[in-house]
Amino acid sequence: MAHHQILIAGGGAAGITVAAQLKRARPSLEVAILEPSGEHYYQPGWTLVGGGVFSLEDTRRAEGDLIPSGVTWIREAVAGFDPEHNSVTTASGQSFSYDVLIVATGLKLCWDRIDGLTEALGQGGVCSNYSKDFAPYTWEAIQAFKGGNAVFTCAPMPIKCPGAPQKIAYLADDVFKQKRLNAKVIYATATPGIFGIPTYAAPLREVVQRRGIDARYNHVLTAVRAAQKEAVFQVTEGETSRKEVIPYDLLHVTPPMAAPDAVATSPLANGAGFVEVDQFSLQHVRYPNVFSLGDVSGMPNSKTAAAVRGQAPVLVTNLLAHLDGQVGAAAYDGYSCCPLITGYGKAIMAEFNYKAEPVPSFPLDPTKERWSMWWIKRKLLPSLYWNRMLTGAQHERRFIPGVKGPGVKA
To answer: Is 161 a catalytic residue?
Structure first.
């Protein structure tokens, strides 16, 4: 059984970021990453792929070019975890042991939990920005739309980037209005409100009202009837529940999401299937030599790439303390960021913490729609991702502290 000092399960945004920060902090560390994919995608860019701003190729890099120098890449998928014996097994049957394990596998998309969706995707106006296979078709479907109902869904939490399901609705609405189409845009979300952070929910409600979008809450998509072009929802109203069928001419779906089976069925998982770590230290509550960050971790934060930048320095500090026989003192405050695109050329930069408090990086009122934040989303953030985040650099907010805006506790 091959042994590694630090073994990272997953070579996505979280796995590569934490590997790079570990090697920057202590170059002598022996680190290995388990990751089967030869391609790495900037997933936050897929909204702009679906909106016709980026090509899919703009969001892709070779995985091998991103593995930090001195880190071993094991091109295998994790199939099982045995924390009692400090080992993992892979899909090919290999076993690896470790001194410290970092779980950063990300989430899986559960298309099959919605009846008829798997067969419907990628044709007939049924699209999704949550997959590299279907994001380009979103733009095709928006361009081909001639009018009628354009339905955009949001699955029950937790999901990756909870703001993404509504961003594409705003972009599509811009296109439809420019073409003067007779379109009814419906945003049918499983959530009880437009956004989970009250400070940012208020301006988003204004966006919906201004645009004339039909926002329907507590709507869970359960089936897609492609032949009839109907979306079936289970709708909760207080103590009662009912079925609602909405005809569509375009349907953008956010699939339910879950931890990968290898994690969810392992001793590392909590009741919901995510890695059971302390929400502040990122250290496992039962196995002190196991840490986790990113979407698969069981913290109650918003699951975004930006969250990883708040988590990685905390994990690195506490992991190094563990290696030195000490207790780490670093604490993650729940920082996350969601650049809420509200149309072409406009975005609200929603930054917040566990307490649902705004924590803006910029000296501007963060609740306002701004062209500057659209520019940051489109131009700056991809560059920061490839050239700073994945190379282990610290978050730029250290150099640009925000200030208080109207009604904002910064």
So the answer is: yes
